[in-house]
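task queued by scheduler; priority normal; single chain, no ligands, no partner chains; default sampling; output format set to structure tokens
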Amino acid sequence: MKQITSNIYYVGVNDRNKNLFEGLWPLPNGVSYNSYIIDDDKVCLIDTVEVDFFTQFLENIHEVIGEKDIDYLVVNHMEPDHSGSIALIKKYYPNIQVIGNKKTFGMLSGFYGVKDQEIEVKNGDTLSLGTHELKFVLTPMVHWPETMVTLDTTANVLFSGDAFGCFGALNGGTIDSEINCDTFWLEMVRYYSNIVGKYGTPVQNALKKLAGIPLDYICSTHGPVWHDHIDKVIGIYDRLSRYESEEGIVICYGTMYGNTERMAETIAEAASKAGIKNIVIYNVSKTHHSYILRDIFRYKALIVGAPTYNTSLYHEMDVLLSEIAHKDMKNRLIGWFGSYGWASKAVAKIKEWNDNALHFEAVGEPVEMCQAINADVRTRCEALGQAMAERLISERP
């Protein structure tokens, strides 16, 4: 039994088997699906877990409440990794009443055919469980239209849905004060950038609704329960949703035979000599784009380069630029370079991506190379790296 505070318990599960979250994002350290029970005069379950883990989930619930009934199920988010067990929970607890907002119930019917015993709540509505008082706050598009969070105003606990979540299974402990959180911080940035990153404005709106509310615990649906690190966690989400960044450069390249890679190395070396310490270099065909996107959210500058391929842009670079465009990122710098063997196209295609979709501030002169690097190309690559470094340094206080 994992008690968080005053009759609030953790009943979630770990998934150490799934390779890709949502079929897209790598899970080298697994992921947790978090659910919680408030054992009061009325018993309230907060969210469920992915249906594959229902048996363990049910055992966790029984460990807390024994043969007692569950009166309410609060659904903060309808994505199936949190709602997947709802239909089965209703079979085991047929009297349970499902609490959600208007948009919740359309999805509940569509996903699981559940249409009865519903209690619709609006923003600011409250519910008494006895000692504990719940308040519901709608947070649409963080990151689905039906998302909301639930405040236990008695215990100062926020059940935040996917907000403030991160990748990584829980290794024994549940609350951050019980565990070493070092591995979770970059995984929180990667989780945000890949899952929530497009929705910076809705996240800011949600943070404004929660501003000034005393919180002793944040109970997300993924990752640790936050207690000691609440200010840090909120700060990370605040900075990321405002598209704030650190001084640094992400250099991404595609290469077939190593020639374009040499351009990337030359650019990086020049930027380093000019005074930039935070430089990361990624081969877009080797490193999963999940990690590249994470660092593009972290750092201010991006330099991309790739060869022409089939009279267009190298495929993996085209995919990455598409993924970046879908994040609607702001306040970033970009430079680019490319190569070709017999038909020039890559550099022009990268420019099209920036002009039509990314809208980042272009820095330096693009560098185009025919076939292999030479003294002139090397000089122009150095100039691009130096120009980006100088642009970053110009923003130092």
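post-processing summary
- The chain has twelve helices and 23 strands.
- The CA atoms of residues 12 and 57 lie 6 Å apart.
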